[in-house]
Amino acid sequence: MDAKIFMSVSQLTKYIFLIFLLGAILGGILGGLMVSKIKNGFKGNKNRFHKNK
């Protein structure tokens, strides 16, 4: 019984780790895209303000 429980726990931890890794990779990619869009937006706003002045 203990061996079976240990095996299931190890498999669960492996799956959780894989899911966490995939989530981190996807989150990093999405986060990078969001940051780049925000930075571009700020640059555009700054340029607009300079043009108005």
In words, what does this structure look like?
96% of the residues lie in helices and 0% in strands. It has a domain at 24-53. The termini are far apart. It is rod-shaped. The chain has 53 residues and is mainly alpha-helical. The chain crosses the membrane at residues 15-36. Keywords: Membrane, Transmembrane, Transmembrane helix.
What key attributes describe this structure?
single chain; 53 residues; mainly alpha
List the helices and strands and how they pair.
Blueprint: H1 2-52
Short account of what is shown:
This protein has one helix at residues 2-52. It has 53 residues and is mainly alpha-helical. The chain has a domain at 24-53.
Number of strands: 0
The major pleated sheet works out as: none
Poorly predicted tracts of residues: none
So how many helices? 1
Distance between the termini: 76 Å
Order of helices and strands: H
What's the gyration radius in Å? 23 Å
| Secondary structural class | mainly alpha
Share of helix among residues?
over 70%
Shape: rod-shaped
Mean pLDDT across residues = 83
Approximately how much beta-strand content do the residues carry? under 5%
Keywords: Membrane, Transmembrane, Transmembrane helix
